[in-house]
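User: I'm curious whether this sequence folds into something compact or stays loose and floppy. Could you predict its structure so I can see for myself?
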Amino acid sequence: MNWTLALPEIVLSLCGMGILVVGVLRKAESTQLCTMLTLGAFLIAALLVVSAATGAAYHGLFVSDPFSGFAQVLILAAAALVLVMSLDFNAREGLARFEFPVLVLFSVVGMMIMVSAGNLMTLYLGLELQSLALYVLTAFARDNLRSSEAGLKYFVLGALAAGLMLYGISLVYGFSGGTGFVHLTHALAGPHVSPGLIVGVVFVLAGLVFKVSAVPFHMWTPDVYEGAPTPVTAFLGTAPKVAAMALILRTMLSPFGHIQPQWQLLIEIISIASMVLGALAAIGQTNIKRLMAYSSIGHMGYALIGLAAGTMSGVRGTLVYLVVYVFMNIGTFAVIIAMRRRGRALDKISDLAGLARTDPALALVMAVFMFSMAGIPPMSGFFGKLYIFLAAVQSGLWTLAVVGVLTSVVGAFYYIRIIWVMYFTDSVEEAFDTRAPSLSVVAAAAGLFTTFFFLLPAPIVDAAQIAAKVLLG
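Assistant: Here's the prediction. I'll summarize afterward.
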């Protein structure tokens, strides 16, 4: 059984149940304590992940390797930063309830199971554990109509995607005789692959693509991003995307790697459609959270280029891109959370007018994140795209590389427009309210990472290379 390979997930689950008991017993005043305990649990889990052995557990249902370790550490880091940002926001918005960090914790457990899945059943269980917690978090501001609507939309469309995936899993099982990744790898190694199995793979992929909000399963993203509480939006845009993208990489390149010619074109189409829609649909947005939603669709299109390449450099490029994306995305949302006047949260791009004069430091870090998302050197976003586009060119996928460059140019328009609003537009209102030190720390840390990534990229690139070897070695 070798159950110790799943020790990070087991410990995190036990911590979650313990924190839940603490919250129930202490009631109203327990929010900050539960958040601190959850952050401690994340730290313990990260240490266990880093020191974990490699191998398969529970008869192949669960896998521990450098690939899962890379994704899990990134997920834990993203969740921890979101929790730090959420403390002040939740207190000001009347959402300071102990259930928030507990839901984030159990969602993270689901994500960690997802990236360690060695069987389609484990994959589905991890996905549903993550999703159920996210549905509740999206509607966490239950007295806010937009939040309730966002939660309902996410739940209904998420249930549809889960149904598509289950149908695909049933087809894969029916035509191959098993659901384990090792079994599927052997079943698909032959020269003749059943058309029914290919259809099953497409349905499984559809369910996974929904979780990264890539086209054509992106329709939930703008409404959910806009309606959910801003820390939840920051969480939705980072950790679940990392988990789902890692799961797509493992699923498509491990058990379904032998039939890559059958699904490669599908990934290319999804990637191109996501990049184009993300670039064009964001141009007319006035709400910054909706703009970030379309931005995330485009960024997931870039990340999928590495999967379409299906090579070592492609997987490495996608993993590096995910690291870069997480930090610049969390930093951007830290600035959005800081947008508050007279106690009221703001989310319009026009609310940033004149920020360079009223709060130069905040404007500077926001400019850094916008330049990075546009892919302008020497910010980390440029190097993330560079690794991705190089992998596409090396694999002969020139169309993907050209579309990626062109959509980056289009996307630069609305990112630089935000900088223009901050620096060259006069503010008609007073400065933002004093922000919490925790927000300043998160924004500064993400800004420093984004700005100085080019000085020391080797540790992340090397870790991504080792993770990629697990899937393609």
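Summary: The mean pLDDT is 91. The first strand starts at residue 55 and ends at 57.
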